[in-house]
Design a protein that fits this description.
Three copies of one chain form a homotrimer. The first copy, chain A, has helices at 2-23, 28-50, 56-59, 62-74, 84-87, 89-109, 114-135, 150-165, 170-190. Chain A is an all-alpha fold.
């Protein structure tokens, strides 16, 4: 079950990378590279920061093959339809939930503090997209006014820690935390919940 | 004493990150992330390059909490006044001095050559800002004509090595090297000392 | 012999970094940093991903000194002539061949799958330039329509694996694979071989 969701998360992030690459008129090398960067970037940072080896995509080496096939298939289409993005909200939120919780648990296993573990959760869940944005020469959208994303991941990690502190067994706490992130994220997109920010300046995007 | 200065260096770099984020109209997630990146980026590169684990900000985990509180407090203000930048020159130079010397010593402990150790000193002292600039989609100001910064760090590291080679005890050599970087940097800002460069082309900034 | 070619590869990548820095009007700090980033970026990623320490440029510490001297010498000239770029095609292709094969072999030694090893070959051969482009605030040219580069590296790695699978001794397979990458790359530049891409959109560079 968890394997299936993780695989879904990898594929979804990969599709997001493909769309990013196509928006910047990249060729197959760019499409494949961006898909790898978005799908594996956050988990790679976590693994490097925590000194976990082999990196998760080196250990589960079929992941890179799947991303390769995904890039091959999608590069046949001139551009993915804009509606794909809406279609991706559910698997994308699933990916955020699973990657975040997996990142936080990995950090706790490595003996970090709870606060560091929650940061590792957020990094694992969101920094693939951040690195992808940087590669594509834009200020990361995660850092700018937009529907809550890092906040969902962060609070889901703390829900996990709270449940664990209350002696809730992991087999309950983990799915509850993941679900809370998924639902929080979907609601934030649906009702456009954002962190407070200076209202005038949000237009000046890049 | 050294702990207090290091803490001051972390806070100062964090404030620089906050200012960078606010200039790019980021929300709290961006402010906190940029503060983390600028404060810990250089030391993280050094620790990864030298295979030092846990990373210094994972080991001293209150640092991330301090940056979190700093980001919370500063995000209340719509923007930090421009004069904050002048006010920051002293702690900023202190941070440059301390981080550089700490980086060089860490490299020597890991058995690198003197030249590599001096590069690690510069990376630790300055690359947090470099990564912050890259994230904010600008060519790193460290690499462009501006008052000497990397040069101060580099020469301070070599002063440390020279004093050590002359059998000056570390308890003297370290503060002398740090002070030399701080004073050199303050003087470079005060009198606008720059490396030679093509004078026409400095305006075309980004 | 291999040492000589590797040294040539480091110097060539360094010169490319110098040219990139000069195009962005950087001072000596920028020139030296970009030369380091382009020359060592790909190999550093590989070493970090595979947990190989010391990093190759920390182990062979004269490399950084050579790049330092290269940056000093070239910073005397106001700008390298445009024709330098043509002149660099041969050593540049040599560097691509050698770095790619060295990266793939290092990955196999670390026990990765063949597909991961071929990706490590491409990363080692090409990602120094990718990181250099990102630092200079442009979308990596490797990811956009241009004469084949990553493709040459990728196919050369698979030629190496095929020859090894056919029990060709390494002392033959390695030079054949390197030569194939060099010749493929030179031909791709000469006849402008590119991956298929949407023809209209290639102009909109950055």
């Amino acid at each position: 079950m968890q394997q299936a969701v993780e695989l879904l998360a990898v594929i979804t992030s990969g599709v997001y990378g493909v769309m990013l690459a196509k928006r910047h008129h990249m060729d197959f090398v760019g499409v494949f590279s961006l898909a790898l960067i978005v799908a594996f970037g956050g988990g790679t940072l976590r693994d490097l920061f925590l000194d976990r080896h082999p990196l998760f995509w080196i250990g589960r080496h079929h992941y890179t093959v799947i991303i390769f096939i995904l890039a091959l298939v999608t590069s046949v289409f001139p551009a993915l339809p804009k509606s794909t993005e809406d279609f991706l909200h559910l698997p994308d939120s699933l990916g955020l939930g699973l990657f975040s919780v997996a990142g936080a648990i990995a950090a706790l296993e490595a003996g970090t503090s709870l606060f560091i573990a929650s940061l590792m959760g957020v990094i694992t869940g969101t920094f693939g997209g951040v690195i992808g944005d940087i590669v594509c020469n834009k200020v990361p959208s995660l850092f700018r006014p937009a529907p809550l994303c890092a906040t969902c991941s962060f609070s889901g990690c703390w829900l996990l820690f709270s449940l664990t502190a209350l002696s809730v067994p992991e087999s309950y706490a983990v799915p509850v935390a993941i679900s809370s992130i998924v639902l929080f994220r979907l609601a934030a997109i649906r009702w456009n919940w954002q962190l407070p920010h200076d209202p005038v300046e949000t237009d000046d995007g890049n």
